[in-house]
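Hi P.,

Sorry for the delay on this. The queue was packed all week, but I finally got your sequence through. Input first:
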Amino acid sequence: MENYNFILPNNLAGSRLDKAICFLISKFSRSQIQKAIKDGNVKINEVIISDSAAKVKENDFIFIELQEAQTNEMNKANIDLDIVYEDEDLIVLNKQAGLTVHPGAGNHQDTLSNALLFHYDSLSDIGGLDRPGIVHRLDKDTSGLMVIAKNNNAHKALSHQIEKRELVRRYKAFIWGTLNPKSGIIKNNIGRSNGNRKKMTILKFGGKEAITYYNTEEIILNGLISIVECKLGTGRTHQIRAQLSHNGHSIIGDQVYGNNNRKINNCPASIVESLTKFKRQALHSWYIGFSHPITMKFLEFESFLPNDMLNLLHSIKNI
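Then the structure:
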């Protein structure tokens, strides 16, 4: 990583943050700058800013941490993919929990991106060389459906649907407690935590708007645990996990948001072992729907809960 500090000169006052940094650090592309901003690696006057369009002012003190540009091609990885649908423009796949979507800190070899390069010769490159075909992402330990673009036209059309909130994504989550009301909308602003840049937090000011529609499908153990369906209104990083935790109902197994171990200790002894062994967030992308980027036909796909979540559900419902 390379670190840069500078004080914004008068001639760049009023510019977008990404444009200003690009002007001052010409060796990096604008997409690299925007990624650094999105990842929480940029501060203005010691405050993390995650909006590339934020306006800068004269004498702003700007800090940025940038990943050195990759000069070598990404390695291919022979990782099995669960393909749900495929045509000449796109792929719909069922990502397994534990698989990182694209290279990042600590993992550059065994990601979904590496696997896609092994299995496919043609993928979109709009997202960059390290994100072939990647239109949107799932957290490493979230399982379920994703759509992959084989070419740039498909990528642009799918990204546009995400931006316009026309691409539908629904998740199943096992949560602690019971939401009140049982159905509704969670709407707030989300941004990087100042204390932990790998973690998102709910903000009173700044950040980006995050919207999740939810519906409680089942209440288990007299309200100790619930099954909730969440539909994304927006697609912010860690959105569902951060919002549910902020509301006091974190997702079972989540090792980052909510005190999972403390909550397990309050459970019946017969299910403590099953809950303790479940080390990833019980969150599954079970439905995705979108208009095909070429034919415009609306496509819908569903994915059953994976075995680890089914086994956990069996354990907590059959004590």
